[in-house]
Amino acid sequence: MALISHPCPSLIPLKQNHTTITRASTGNNSNLPDAAKHTVDTYIKNGMVVGLGSGQVSGMAIQYLGRQLRSGALHDIVGVPMSLESACEAATAGIPLLDQYQDTSQIDFAFDDADIIEEGTLIAVIGRRRSRGDESIIQEKSILNAANKLVFMISKNQYQSVLDGSIPVLVQSLNWMEAAEQIDDLFIGDAEVWRRPSIGHADPLGGNFPLVTKEGYHVLDVIFTSPITSLAEVAECLNKVDGVVDHGVVSKFPCTVVITSESGLSIVDNLRANAAVEGI
């Protein structure tokens, strides 16, 4: 059963503008460092406040940004880390950090990894792989949404027209089971709902040691067994469930995706065509 059968409203597809940067193939070597370098060199300018993402490619971008600051190629950059991991990497790289991030903080540009991105809309899923309670989907999404410009850096197999896998959902701890049951009913036949554990193996209840985020929420992994035909539709359905605080679906305008493959880099931009998906 496909998700399109559920009574959640579909949204008008977004237009996109696609340009490609072709570089010499590196054989079996990854072009992830090229994506990090391209992102820093192309989008970060002197005097910017920059949101620093989490993940492998973001770590490379943070390291390269630090080298550019030390060499004098860039100056007066202030970083806003999205996680403890990115804060530690930025400190090691010598990037000055904002003393305290608030929702009202101005962020000129942000870069981040994504677990998967929907082709055409550039709606992303974050938070699939993180298992530590000190990481925060809420903080990461807040910084991404606050940025005037956003770049996701991914590999080619993470850019898909039909998506699968899981979407993390943050729920209130006291009534997490009620929220899980509502989500299970919402996507019955299309997904399984498991509570994420802090240690040990996962199971539907999350074991005796469920993961608790630093804000005090539990994490439900909604694991889709049928293709996800619309991330915007899924996000809208999740937003209506009592007890759901946030989730790993991110939609942002403007947004650019730097896609790596063995043949080089592809750059995809979205163009604002329908404001209905804003605020996901």
Description:
There is one protein chain. With 280 residues, the protein is α/β, with parallel strands linked by helices. Helices cover 24% and strands 28% of the residues. It is built from 6 helices and 15 strands. The strands form 3 sheets. A 7-stranded mixed beta sheet has the order 1-15-14-7-4-2-3, with helices on both faces. Strands 8-5-6-13 form a 4-stranded mixed beta sheet. The chain is globular. One of its GO terms (molecular function) is ribose-5-phosphate isomerase activity. Pathway: Carbohydrate degradation; pentose phosphate pathway; D-ribose 5-phosphate from D-ribulose 5-phosphate (non-oxidative stage): step 1/1. One of its GO terms (biological process) is pentose-phosphate shunt, non-oxidative branch. Belongs to the ribose 5-phosphate isomerase family.
Task: Record the SSE blueprint.
Layout lengths: L15 E7 L9 H12 L5 E4 L3 H16 L6 E4 L2 H10 L15 E5 L2 E3 L5 E2 L11 H10 L3 E6 L3 E2 L2 E9 L4 H11 L4 E5 L22 E11 L2 H9 L4 E4 L1 E2 L4 E7 L2 E7 L10
Parallel strand pairs: 2-3, 2-4, 4-7, 5-8, 7-14
Antiparallel strand pairs: 1-15, 5-6, 6-13, 9-11, 9-12, 10-11, 14-15
Helix pairs in contact: 1-2, 2-3
